[in-house]
Design goal:
This protein has 168 residues and is of the alpha+beta class. The radius of gyration is 17 Å and the shape is globular. 33% of the residues lie in helices and 28% in strands. It contains 3 helices and 8 strands; from the N terminus they run H-E-E-E-E-E-H-E-E-E-H. The two termini are 26 Å apart. The protein has a single domain (27-166), classed as Gyrase A, domain 2. The chain has helices at residues 3-20, 93-105, 142-166, and strands spanning 31-35, 48-51, 58-61, 72-79, 85-91, 110-115, 118-124, 133-138. The chain has a 6-stranded antiparallel beta sheet with strand order 1-6-7-8-5-4. A two-stranded antiparallel ribbon has the order 2-3. A hairpin with an 8-residue loop joins strand 7 (118-124) and strand 8.
């Protein structure tokens, strides 16, 4: 193993140990974003199938997430020009870089949002996203959406605290 890979491995192991050492009352629900696999399997990628709860739309997405709860610095409930409610995720610097690179190379593909392991939202990438802010629509009634966003904000604060503590 080369020295940079070894150091990266040790850093990842340290972060995992620090995050797993938290009490049971500090569980954070997963927030994962998966990019659709190209149709026809031309790239040779094998993905996983996910189905949205209300629309029943089915997507084959990459197994590895584009970004996760570790990359999120804040989440907000916003109302877009059409009057629909959406989630706005503010990403930290590493998450913003990942999103930018993947939004450039995967223009036109769909990104599926899973919360707590359940697919609940989708958005088609329509261009490069360079500002670290990611909007997505979810298949959930507004009252439930409000409560979920509050829970997500608490989870995000907790995750950011854990990450700050693990750096020191």
């Amino acid at each position: 193993m080369t020295m940079p890979k070894y150091i990266a491995f040790l850093a990842a192991l340290y972060l995992a140990v620090c995050l797993s050492g938290c009490g049971e009352d500090e569980k954070v629900k997963s927030m994962r974003f998966y990019i659709e696999v190209p149709a026809g399997g031309a790239s040779g990628e094998v993905g996983k199938n996910v189905t949205l709860p209300q629309s029943g739309l089915n997507y084959n997405v990459r197994i590895d997430p584009l970004f996760t709860e570790v990359d999120i610095s804040n989440v907000q409930l916003v109302k877009v020009a059409s009057g629909e409610h959406a989630l706005l995720f503010h990403l930290n610097e590493p998450g913003a870089r990942k999103l930018y690179r993947q939004s450039v190379s995967n223009n036109g593909r769909v990104v599926i949002f899973e919360y707590g392991g359940k697919p609940i939202g989708a958005r088609q990438i329509d261009g490069a996203i360079s500002d670290g802010r990611y909007f997505t629509f979810v298949e959930m009634p507004y009252p439930e959406l409000e409560a979920m966003v509050m829970e997500m904000q608490g989870d995000t604060r907790l995750m950011n605290e854990k990450l700050r503590e693990s750096r020191f």
